[in-house]
Design a protein that fits this description.
The chain is 69% helix and 2% strand. By secondary structure, the chain is mostly helical. Strands 1-2 form a two-stranded parallel ribbon. A two-stranded antiparallel sheet has the order 3-4. The longest helix has 31 residues, at 342-372.
Length: 385
Amino acid sequence: MALYEYVTQEQLAGFDKYKYSAVDSNPLSIYVMHPFWNFVVKFLPTWLAPNLITFTGFMFLVLNFLMLAFYDFDFNASSAGHEHVPSWVWVAAGIFNFLAYTLDGVDGKQARRTNSSTPLGELFDHGLDSWACIFFVATVYSIFGRGESGVGVVTLYYILWVVLFSFILSHWEKYNTGILFLPWGYDISQVTISLVYLVTAAVGVETWYKPIVFNLLYRDLFTFMIIACSFSVTLPMSLYNVLKAYRNNTLKHSSLYEGLLPFLSPFLLFVLSTVWVIYSPSNIVELQPRLFYLMVGTAFANVTCKLIVCQMSNTRCQPLSILLLPMTVVVVLVITRVFTNETLLLYLWTAAVVLAHIHYGVSVVKQLSNHFGIFAFSLKKPNSD
């Protein structure tokens, strides 16, 4: 039995009928990365479970996050006058990021190679990808930090939401069209950031203090590229694909309300977390930026995973994520100053969110493993008895 049956019987029936459908039109992915991944997967043993590859790649991103948390917990290390992150950490971050990206690319190929593709594998992959957003963004932030030539912690909070919005767009597309259109920005960003980590190790963070041209700093380019990629590439392409499905009469949800329903819980999460940022008595995002980002990113991953379950099982997205109810209470306690130790409350709530999300993930994986009669991290089959 699963720890708790988060996946309904209707959704399990939907998973039984599920067929993977995706479109990858990115030239970098098609002409460079896929050939590379096809080469790499040949060296993997055929007994190695694809989900184990996925999880290992994800843990490389978590390791990057933890490394930088140790050397740069408050995002001050890259600022002038502070002790900088050691060069070897940037080298490790570059290698680990590229390894995570590579493993994320070969897990599906290993599944097809070993004839072990299941809906659980796709759900596991995309579920971890949704959580990886926060680990990736927070680690990249340490390159520039929050100093005079860096990015303010409040600005980074909104940049984080741009990244999260870009991620959920792809799954909103699939919820409405039945096809996952893989975003171009993902491959480009992963390769670029892996190289930037290595360049930082070679030339030092001081290089990023200098203007590129006139008064344009690297932090400005960093901010512009993320926002521009989201609103000039990802969003227009998503809208185009959904409108194309509408014109072809292949849209899965006919009403505007049903089509936009996946955005409701993420929007409410954004509102709650932004109210906390704006009305925080102790300016909590300045005091504990890393912890606040982790809380928001994990809550977002939890909301998104539930959307992915509905999208893959072809069931209706639930309007409200249950996690938002206690978070509303937490935010009210903060802004009304009923709970005066805001930092302690953030630590407690972040721990609760992380544990709740891990519990949800373990429960869903176990429930689907039992349903499909497989092991999540092994290609061996459970005993028939």
